[in-house]
């Protein structure tokens, strides 16, 4: 293979990296004469955004793009197709402008909700100088089109507050340079109370001129060192993090103050809408956490500066296995938006249980918000409903750590790969993405279908033995793995199931409940409000019903709970029975890794089944109509 890059000058660090990448992958120098090459990269201002791959003849491919980062992405696309030996003319344009991974890494090396070992960036309040690993990671992210990364936890603890100080910025720059070569902009999570924490001021009031000046000086310092710095990610007035509420200011005032400090440098503020009352009294049936984001932010639509983007979790509660789509989407008209997902498997199995999340994301992204004619799918919201599409897109909490295979369970790599792919093209199906990942990861295997079968059913399996009918949060408090049905029932977090001897679920209707359903566009409101049209998988999210309530498939709620929990365990047993077919084909380390995790998954599934079935049998007194073993 002979490569040529036009223009043949490499002042741009991304272009230089492209040259290095080609030389690394093909162990060959670029040729100096265009006609001798069979792969030619051309900067062409008319091809924007994305890139164009043109097959000239059997021998020659040309990749054109306006931006050097897109040429690099075109190169990775070329590699993918080389492996699949499938070349056709193709114009690739990303669905989303921002395609971001958020790290919840702490400076001490721990990772909030991390399940794959310690941080790849930090240890013991210092930067881990393992830049080789970071480079491999940057390559992986770039290969699927990720273009933003946040380097630290949104909960900004003591030491992390000082990541924006001269003491640490030199090392941040080091990381920013590595990511920068791969076309990825670095952002930092900042603490809203930084001016106070630094010991410089007595207030962090966004309307105070000294505070504004403080942030301006800080921004200037950062950009002097890191000219392509992305900006700030902010969790404010959320779960104990400081924010503008302390000064009687709103989120727009808080976000805009930071945004104005970054604006001269073209930086952005990504401001999270995960704001709710985290000190709720379980006795209080009027407050509804699901309502919170909409109640806090809808009235602020149009009040945010152009370089502010709201980062909104895909659902109203918290990355549950099953919850509806956040009603702010489609309703907001004058605010930049990012949809937030969680690749790290906090509520979805801790990377112990296999859970191929693309199934969930595909469904969520194709949800019709009913705010458009003939439709407005969630996937199209960031680019069509944001005043500055360039500052809008998707983000996800990442799932890598220092484990040798990056993600703890080897198969969880597919979620990171897949997130990048759907961020680029939300119409790629979970099957297509999985096929790509399997091909790239394992090559040709005789029993590839076994892995496919397991992974493609894994999301439904996890839902079956954990959360029935959209109920959510019956997990062990704090760590969120394994069952604890009443674990949150009398707690302050606003996540209740209200099970009693007659039934369960949260009444969120306008008629008799919290009125949350009214936050949706008319058609969705009507669908969710009415018991007969509410989709079964979300029934208990929207309604409190009797155990004998009959679902659309003719089963009662209680029988559905029993059936799914028995079936979920059987599925995991099936996976364990299938897996040995791969023993001779996979590297022993990968084979064992998944086997070991499957064994742990089975234990988890059995525990869920038995606790759930016993609990609801004791509550309802209604036996299983198939007389299976329930520990009464
Ligand atoms: C969840 C998670 C927290 C995290 C929070 C957030 O509640 O359990 O660890 O800090 O989300 O998204 O900010």
From TrEMBL:
GO terms for molecular function: alpha-glucuronidase activity; xylan alpha-1,2-glucuronosidase activity. InterPro entries: A-glucoronidase_C_sf, GH, Glyco_hydro_67_C, Glyco_hydro_67_cat. Residues 89-406 form the Glycosyl hydrolase family 67 catalytic domain. Residues 407-628 form the Glycosyl hydrolase family 67 C-terminal domain. Gene3D superfamilies: Alpha-glucuronidase, C-terminal domain, Glycosidases. PANTHER family: ALPHA-GLUCURONIDASE A. This is AguA protein.
């Amino acid at each position: 293979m002979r490569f040529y890059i036009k223009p043949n000058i490499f002042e741009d660090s991304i272009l230089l990296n492209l040259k290095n990448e080609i030389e690394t992958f093909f162990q060959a120098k670029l040729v100096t004469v265009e006609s001798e090459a069979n792969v030619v990269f051309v900067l062409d201002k008319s091809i924007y955004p994305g890139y164009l791959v043109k097959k000239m003849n059997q021998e020659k491919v040309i990749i054109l793009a306006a931006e050097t980062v897109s040429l690099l992405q075109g190169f990775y696309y070329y590699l993918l197709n080389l492996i699949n030996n499938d070349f056709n003319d193709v114009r690739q344009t990303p669905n989303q402008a921002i395609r971001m991974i958020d790290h919840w890494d702490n400076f001490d090396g721990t990772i909030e909700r991390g399940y794959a070992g310690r941080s790849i960036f930090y240890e013991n309040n210092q930067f881990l100088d393992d830049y080789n690993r970071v480079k491999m990671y940057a390559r992986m992210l770039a290969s699927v089109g990720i273009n933003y990364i946040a380097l630290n936890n949104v909960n900004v603890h003591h030491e992390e507050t000082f990541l924006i100080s001269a003491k640490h910025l030199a090392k941040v720059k080091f990381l920013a340079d590595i990511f920068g070569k791969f076309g990825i902009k670095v952002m930092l999570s900042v603490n809203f109370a930084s001016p106070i924490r630094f010991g410089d001021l007595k207030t962090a009031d966004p309307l105070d001129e000294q505070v504004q000046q403080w942030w301006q000086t800080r921004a200037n310092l950062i950009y002097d060192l890191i000219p392509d710095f992305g900006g700030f990610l902010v969790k404010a007035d959320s779960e104990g993090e400081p924010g503008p509420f302390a000064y009687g200011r709103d989120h727009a005032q808080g976000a805009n103050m930071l945004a104005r400090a970054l604006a001269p440098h073209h930086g952005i503020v990504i401001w999270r809408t995960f704001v709710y009352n985290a000190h709720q009294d379980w006795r209080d049936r009027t407050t509804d956490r699901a309502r919170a984001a909409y109640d806090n932010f809808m009235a602020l639509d149009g009040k945010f500066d152009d370089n502010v983007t709201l980062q909104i979790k895909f659902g109203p509660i918290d990355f549950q296995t099953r919850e509806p789509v956040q009603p702010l989407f489609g309703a907001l008209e004058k605010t930049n938006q990012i949809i937030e997902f969680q690749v790290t498997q906090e509520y979805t199995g801790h990377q112990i249980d296999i859970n191929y999340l693309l199934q969930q994301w595909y469904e969520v992204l194709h949800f019709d918000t009913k705010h458009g004619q003939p439709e407005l799918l969630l996937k199209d919201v960031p680019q069509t409903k944001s005043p500055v599409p360039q500052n809008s897109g998707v983000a996800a909490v990442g799932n890598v750590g220092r484990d040798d295979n990056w993600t703890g369970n080897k198969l969880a790599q597919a979620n990171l790969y897949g997130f990048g792919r759907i961020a680029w093209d939300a119409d790629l199906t979970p099957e297509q993405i999985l096929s790509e990942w399997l091909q790239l990861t394992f090559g040709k295997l005789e029993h590839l279908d076994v892995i496919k079968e397991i992974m493609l059913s894994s999301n439904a399996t996890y839902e079956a033995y954990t959360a029935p009918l959209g109920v959510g949060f019956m997990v062990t408090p704090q760590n969120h793995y394994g069952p604890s049905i009443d674990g949150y029932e009398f707690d302050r977090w606003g996540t209740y199931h209200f099970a009693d001897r007659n039934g369960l679920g949260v009444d969120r209707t306008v008629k008799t409940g919290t009125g949350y359903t009214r936050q949706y566009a008319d058609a969705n409101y009507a669908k969710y409000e009415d018991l007969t049209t509410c989709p079964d998988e979300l029934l208990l999210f929207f309604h409190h019903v009797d155990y004998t309530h009959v679902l659309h498939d003719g089963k009662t709620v209680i029988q559905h709970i029993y059936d799914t929990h028995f079936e979920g365990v059987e599925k995991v047993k099936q996976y364990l029975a299938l897996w040995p077919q791969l023993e001779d084909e996979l590297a022993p380390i990968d084979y064992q890794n998944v086997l070991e995790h499957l064994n742990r998954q089975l234990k988890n599934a059995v525990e869920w089944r038995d606790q759930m079935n016993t609990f609801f049998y004791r509550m309802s007194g209604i036996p299983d109509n198939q007389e299976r073993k329930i520990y009464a």
